[in-house]
Amino acid sequence: MPAFARSSFFRYSGAMSSLRALLMMVAAGLSLAGSPIHAEEQYDANDPFERVNRVTHGLNEGLDKYLLAPVARGWEWISPEFVRTALVNFDDNLRFPINTTNNVLQWKWRAAGEECARFAINTTVGILGFRDVASGWGLEKQNEDTGQTFGVWGIPPGPYLVLPLFGPSNPRDAVGLAADSILSLYWIVAPFWVSLGYSTGEVINRRAVYAEDIDNARRAALDYYVFIRNAYSQRRQALIRDATTTETDYELLSDEDDLYEVDEDLYEVEDDASE
Amino acid sequence: MHRSRLLPRSAPAIAAVAALVLMLGSAAAADDTPSQVIDALAGQVLTTLRDKSLTSEQRRSSIEETVYRHIDFETLSRLVMARNWRKLSDAQKDEFMASFKKHLSATYGENIDNYRNEKVEVLSERKEKKGDVTVKSKIVRGGSESILVDYRLRRKDSAWRIIDVVIEGVSLVANFRSQFQEIISDGGVDRLLKLLRDKNLEAPKF
User: Fold this and answer.
1) What is the end-to-end Cα distance of chain A in Å, rounded?
2) Is there a contact between A216 and B107 (Cβ–Cβ < 8 Å)?
3) Is the predicted pLDDT of residue A256 greater than 70, yes or no?
4) Which of the two ends of chain B, N or C, has the fewest CB atoms closer than 10 A to its terminal CB?
5) B169 CB near a chain A CB, below 8 Å?
6) What are phi and psi of A37, to 5 degrees?
7) Residue A95 DSSP class
């Protein structure tokens, strides 16, 4: 299976919770000053800061290679798989306030209700969320965040940004990430350093869980930077589209979808534009 | 003793049944709907993955053969290359298709030994422009979240063949297209072909 784009991989890239607010605000400030916004997100990369982004990407990769990945390998070696899965479940369960709030903000009351039911079931029957019992009962894990809500509201993503430590993003999603960390309510429950420690542990655990996917992605890519940039924006767009489209509306969508229309002739006119 | 006799004696019967199944199989293939194509393909791949009697090498080559029979690789290559396709000479087109295929095989072949009893469910079908059809499916994994996989098929030579795979909203064609576009605009077609060659050299041999 082409695991390079497993949902988990991208959940991992956006997974690092809490205490991001400061960083995000900086990024948001940066980007508000940034460039005009392109409508076509999916196939034309909107990446005016590519040089800086590539440097940040390189730094993130270096950090991963020399720090995060080795630690995660150690953790993978000493921990049984069920423990790692349980920890992911626990952390996903803690995303309950983020998921629910964003469902409501997107006017998806049914999904909001389901998320509440999930939380109730997994926190009790699933023993504090370590087991995801609800998925087996037809209430699947949800993956909502404020960046998606902004997208559903019609706010465009803006230029691609690679954030230090946090990876692929854009102004819209970076602000969303900051909002998520407030919505997560960690800051009420735990003092800063506890939440820092928890987040670090969680990142290490997820890095171990998704190690195979990440290896696959690096192997599949010829330009890993572009691979991530494109997959990130496709994935985000799909998440937003799923929230705004019902099954039957897809007819409308396919009009803008020229991905499969490319006879060479179709692009002949703009052939030199890319050089 | 009995067993050794039984086998040769029933062998012709088995061969006859197998031939019949194969004939029925190929006769049905022409009229298969896109969903049936995906369903059958998934079934064959899963059977191979579960077959403990095969070596991983046999498994890999069998799956590779099965899968490529259902992929319209030329169309897929053209879609991936898009406006760059016509910059390629015929020889370059051949080289590109061969090494891109090799690259995909090497990348995804790696995962074949990691099979953990995943199952495939075909969910629904959707008509697209140009007569294409998207088949939506789900890979169900025990313990972790299932993965949504859409296959886009196009009818060619009276059979439906895959021209793109979209995993959790990420299209393989679009993703490779953006990579190749960037590589070509930096260093031309030669750079892309060289990158593919290098990648294939460092990849494990199957």
Assistant:
1) 35
2) yes
3) no
4) N
5) yes
6) -105, 135
7) T
Torsion angles phi and psi, residue B65, rounded to 5: -65, -45
Domain ranges for chain B: 14-201
Per-residue pLDDT tens digits for B14-62? 556 555 555 444 444 557 889 989 998 888 888 888 888 888 888 888 8
pLDDT per residue over B87-128, tens digit each? 899 999 999 999 999 999 888 777 777 788 888 999 999 988
Query: Read out DSSP for chain B?
Result: -HHHHHHHHHHHHHHHHHHHHHHHHHHHHTT--HHHHHHHHHHHHHHHHH-TTS-HHHHHHHHHHHHHHTB-HHHHHHHHHGGGGGGS-HHHHHHHHHHHHHHHHHHHHGGGGG--S-EEEEEEEEE-GGG-EEEEEEEE-SSS--EEEEEEEEEETTEEEEEEEEETTEEHHHHHHHHHHHHHHHHHHHHHHHHHHHHHHHSPP-
What the block records as the tokens of A115 is: 């998320």
- Nearest chain B residue to A257 by CA: give it: B129
What B196-201 contacts at long range (C-beta under 8 Å, 24+ apart), as own/partner pairs, is B196/A222, B196/B96, B196/B99, B196/B100, B196/B102, B196/B103, B197/B99, B199/A222, B199/B103, B199/B106, B200/B99, B200/B102, B200/B103, B200/B106
Size of interface A-B (CB pairs under 8 A): 141
Q: Hey, are the CB atoms on A274 and B145 less than 8 Å from each other?
A: no
Residues of chain B numbered 94-123 and touching chain A (CB < 8 Å) = 103, 106-108, 110-111, 114, 118
Measured CA to CA in angstroms, residue A136 lies from A118, B120, B145, B171 at distances of: 11, 17, 10, 28
pLDDT-based confidence at residue A274 (cuts at 50, 70, 90) = very low
CATH of domain B14-201: 3.10.450.710
Beta bridge partners of B162: B71, B153
Q: Is the dihedral of CA A18, A22, A27, A28 positive or negative?
A: positive
DSSP H or E segment with residue A87: helix A81-94
pTM (2 decimals)?
0.79
CB B177 within 8 A of CB B80: yes
Half-sphere exposure of B110 (CA within 13 A, CB side): 20
- If pLDDT is split at 50, 70 and 90, which confidence band does A259 have? low
B206 touches chain A (CB under 8 A): no
Distance CA B191, CA B178 (A): 15
The DSSP element (H or E) to which A161 belongs, if any, is: strand A161-163
CA atoms within 13 A on the CB side of A194: 6
Q: Which amino acid is at A227?
A: F
